[in-house]
Amino acid sequence: MTTASVRKAVEATLESICNRTPAYGELTKRFGPVFFSIARMRDALLKQGVRVPEIESARFAAGTPVLVGRDLSPWVEDFILSAKTLFPVLSEVLDLETDVSDCLLDHFENPDSVLGLVQARIEGDWKHFENTSVRPDTVLPTTLLYISEIVSVPVLSAIVETLGKPLSSLTWEHGHCPVCGSSPTISLLSPKEVTDLDSLVGGGGKKFLHCSQCGHDWRFKRNVCAACGNDDSETREILYDEETRSERVEACHKCGKYCLNIDLRECDPQTHLDAVQIGLIHLDIHAHDKKLTPMVSTLWNNFE
Questions:
Q1: pTM to 2 decimals?
Q2: CATH of the domain spanning 184-294, picked from 3.40.190.290, 3.90.1670.10, 3.30.110.30, 3.40.50.300
Q3: What is the pLDDT of residues 228-259, one digit of tens each?
Q4: Kind plus residue range of the DSSP H or E element containing 233
């Protein structure tokens, strides 16, 4: 998607959320600019040119994502540019004091620091965020993690765009992203397809997982838990509201994890998969009440 098409998808998605659940209006207004800024930054990076990582077939076949364990220094200037561009928006959204924001930006403009944070996010090294001291009196590890994730998104999604067909032609059957190794925050069932034969509408319903970090979508089995690989129907459950059956929770009682799901056959196929999660907090609460934990902790599903 281009910036214009992403903006259109975000605006339509947030408007739909507000119309259906006005209580989410403040959240959509507050975080909408973040989605727009990410799209603009991604397109700017693509326009200037982003280095394309090599897909090492042996590692990939063994289940190792493209960027996991890889030296990320070739993209360090891209991460720094992303930080500089997004920080004004992030500072406002997170309501950061000017001195705190300046201190954080200095940290993200340091090549070693920003690479360390991005690498820690990709490798799942949460201790790194607890041990990184920027402003320990005001900046929580969770805030540092969130900022690192947002700064990384435009760069990683631009990298995904450059991989294109070489990536889509490879087989990947794991529940973590084949590019950056992150887990999905949401899955989707593909929209109906219009065939060339008399404009017949059919098909759709293929399941894809949506990466929480780089935004890549990859095909996955419908009857399998992405967190643990459980395919036992007796220990998996679908939770939903009767009025909005196209939006639901895929729960696994074997591992205690869940992932949101949206059926694009029953709603706007141009739904923005990151923005739509703002309007699904009631499902996160329902899953939380059942003692389930999300595959990925976000601003929307963390109730601790």
A1: 0.92
A2: 3.90.1670.10
A3: 999 999 999 999 988 888 999 999 999 999 99
A4: none
